[in-house]
Amino acid sequence: MTRQMTGAEMVVQALIDQGVEHIFGYPGGAVLPIYDEIFQQEKVQHILVRHEQGAGHAAEGYARSTGKVGVALVTSGPGATNMVTPLTDALMDSIPMVCITGQVATHLIGSDAFQECDTVGITRPSTKHNWLVKDVNDLGRILHEAFYVARSGRPGPVVVDIPKDVQFATGTYHGPQNVEHKTYHPQVRGDIGRIRAAVELMARAKKPVFYTGGGVVNSGPEATRLLRELVAATGFPVTSTLMGLGAYPASGENWLGMLGMHGTYEANNAMHDCDVMIAIGARFDDRITGRLDAFSPGSKKIHIDIDPSSINKNVRVDIGILGDVAHVLEDMLAIWKESGHKADEKALAGWWGEIDRWRARRSLAYRQSGETIMPQYAIQRLYEKTRDRKTFITTEVGQHQMWAAQFYGFEEPNRWMTSGGLGTMGYGLPAAIGAQTAHRDALVIDIAGDASILMNMQEMSTAVQHELPVKVFILNNQYMGMVRQWQQLLHGNRLSHSYTEALPDFVKLAEAYGGIGIRAEKASELDDAIDAMIAAKGPVLFDCRVANLANCFPMIPSGKAHNEMLLPEDATDAAIAEAIDAEGRALV
Amino acid sequence: MVLWFRGPAKAKSLPLPLAGEGRGEGPERNEREAGDGKTMQPGSVYAIKEGKDRTEQHTLSILVDNEPGILARVIGLFSGRGYNIESLTVSETEHEKHRSRITVVTNGSPAVIEQIKAQLERMVLVHRVTDLTVTGRSIERELALIKVRGSGDARVEALRLADAFRARVIDATTESFVFELTGRTDKIDQFLLLMQPLGLVEVSRTGVAAIARGPEAM
Ligand SMILES: Cc1ncc(C[n+]2csc(CCOP(=O)(O)OP(=O)(O)O)c2C)c(N)n1
């Protein structure tokens, strides 16, 4: 199907042809023709944000909560530079996103024109791919290629930079049919020989563990279903990274909890002591591995990933299987069943016995006594009150993020959105807006810190305008808690600039935005306050005053191995001060 | 478009040229054992000790779609991830198909080399990456234009050496020559070293172009 139309019309037509229902954006001179087209149609709904960074994270939240490609539209110059953080965030966390940027007219490129910047140059390292469109006749094809690249293989963000004269020019539009990419064809089926070898290794394992990541969620619902089936068929224990939470249910029998720097004692020790590790859609990030030369020293490692550069990058593996998680798990499960493999029941019973001993250390323990609300308790209450609903959780970055991951039990994939790779404070509120846009009837909660929430606070205004009833649950400890924790661990308890002297009154702030403000200061009033938040029809800022000095444990201190965790009961002031040696101090 | 980068000059002692240089030479493998040869994991904040890995030099041939920005992406990958570029040449090789060939000479531990290839392969505009060092049967050539200024004995000696290296004189004045020399990188390095005391004033080099031997295309 080819038709004549203007570049601006092509943009809207391509969005419609790609099935896009919502986009997040902010207008400006270089995208006015596109905004004019958006005005004259009803199929694509535009959510006006208050800062372009908000548009980017909203698109991420939308993508992560639906499995679809998120779309953002921003103007040239500052509009584009404001997108750099969300693009990088999406690249690190493999979130499919198409970002359309306006550009000055082609004849002005390079002249330092008003609001000109080298958008493709600036965003090149922050995107999976990007395009500057110089001919309107290429625009349709490029837009459809952009969607294809964003969602295929390891998903990621792409930028299509469209000069203003190209938006005005008339040309031939190429629809999504027959858009076949010349070079980009990621491999989805895994090598059967390797899958067979992996299955044999698994069948002989005495102390196996599944280590799953965001790739399972990205691969789609089928991957989640197959993972659950494989775990059930083998009886192996399963842990997950921050990004993979929900792929295996937290209530599942074989669940060990999250692993990594703030993971559970049982998950990290199982990783350390296992004899066969099956990594699925996870990338051996440094928050996961701890000290590499002591990472799971005795295990044979199987790694399933769609990205060839993730295999053998940080950790050498014995069997690398390149392919899409769902496709590989399908074959793996079929081979496991047809060859009549059974896990070594006796060995597995012993292994679970060991795991139970680690569990008995109760590494997530905390003490809630008196009226001061412990942050962990607040999350636990929030979980109990929302678990039976269709609830989506986003977070900002800091201690609250880790507590959310530790204490909120995720049963389904795509319900948990957090900035894992880049660790972007300010992600949570716009991401919640994105998720709420896609799921109008669901309960969407941003678990926030008092410092992070101020980074994109302006998006409250977006939520109010578009009647998106997001709930922001602020664990207000008046500190940049995670920074303070590290200063206590590494810098002699000198709390340099990690205390926020002048926080706003969050209740009044909510009201100023036209939202609802709620405050809870005592443990005894927490439940009622949470009920009120859930019942509220509009956006809420919930100021939950928590113990100011609580720290996040368990923790693998920098430079230590999985089996050298600092547990809450051991975390005395002296132990904290000495937990990280001189070498570990140089690490992040 | 041809573009060429060179890493820091390596201090090597160079043997005199062999007359037959340039014919039938086998694949070159530049291996270096630094320290105790213990393999370390690359790319982690936890690998803070100085790398003690064996470093290998590899020549990679990368077939790409000749779109704007592809060169910047490839170079950005190397600089952004801290990989070395010893030499890099780019040129369109198939006009109708809109394809270019990028030849990169790089060095790193075996794990880093593997990672470089995987990173290149997943790029959207990359058709194919071939490691000519691993395939083992490849020929590498570089072209250099070399200006030497001098008179008297030095001038005569320069001409004599140029003859021994099979360099051609492509420009001459009463006080200078421009030589054109083709060969492997180490041959050109040798020639330049010899020209240094004889009045070397300027050099322009293409960087390495490489191709596999035999009838098959990449
Ligand atoms: C944009 C950005 N700037 C700085 C940081 C570094 N950082 C990580 S956690 C943190 C403190 C977060 O404080 P808060 O939001 O109050 O959460 P808490 O740790 O107290 O739960 C900071 C500053 C970051 N992750 N992102």
UniProtKB/TrEMBL annotation, chain A:
Report the GO terms under cellular component: acetolactate synthase complex
Q: Does the keyword Secreted apply?
A: no
Q: In which pathway does it act?
A: Amino-acid biosynthesis; L-valine biosynthesis; L-valine from pyruvate: step 1/4; Amino-acid biosynthesis; L-isoleucine biosynthesis; L-isoleucine from 2-oxobutanoate: step 1/4
Question: Do you know which InterPro entries this protein is assigned to?
Answer: Acetolactate_synth_lsu, AHAS_TPP, DHS-like_NAD/FAD-binding_dom, THDP-binding, Thiamin_PyroP_enz_cen_dom, Thiamin_PyroP_enz_TPP-bd_dom, TPP_enz, TPP_enzyme_TPP-bd
* Pfam families per UniProt: TPP_enzyme_C (PF02775), TPP_enzyme_M (PF00205), TPP_enzyme_N (PF02776)
Q: How is the cofactor bound?
A: Binds 1 Mg(2+) ion per subunit. Binds 1 thiamine pyrophosphate per subunit.
EC annotation from Swiss-Prot or TrEMBL:
2.2.1.6
User: From the Swiss-Prot or TrEMBL record, what is one GO molecular function term?
Assistant: thiamine pyrophosphate binding
Residue limits of the Thiamine pyrophosphate enzyme TPP-binding domain?
A: 397-544
| Entry-linked Gene3D superfamilies | 3.40.50.970, TPP-binding domain
Q: Where is the Thiamine pyrophosphate enzyme central domain?
A: 195-331
Annotated keywords? Amino-acid biosynthesis, Branched-chain amino acid biosynthesis, Magnesium, Metal-binding, Thiamine pyrophosphate, Transferase
So which domain of life are we looking at?
A: Bacteria
Annotated ranges, domain Thiamine pyrophosphate enzyme N-terminal TPP-binding: 5-121
Q: What does this protein need as cofactor?
A: Mg(2+); thiamine diphosphate
Q: Which GO terms describe its biological process?
A: isoleucine biosynthetic process; L-valine biosynthetic process
Under which main EC class is this enzyme filed? transferase
Give me the reactions it catalyses. 2 pyruvate + H(+) = (2S)-2-acetolactate + CO2
Q: Which family does it belong to?
A: Belongs to the TPP enzyme family.
Q: Which PANTHER family match?
A: ACETOLACTATE SYNTHASE CATALYTIC SUBUNIT, MITOCHONDRIAL, THIAMINE PYROPHOSPHATE ENZYMES
**Which protein are we looking at?**
Acetolactate synthase
Q: Which organism encodes this protein?
A: Prosthecomicrobium pneumaticum
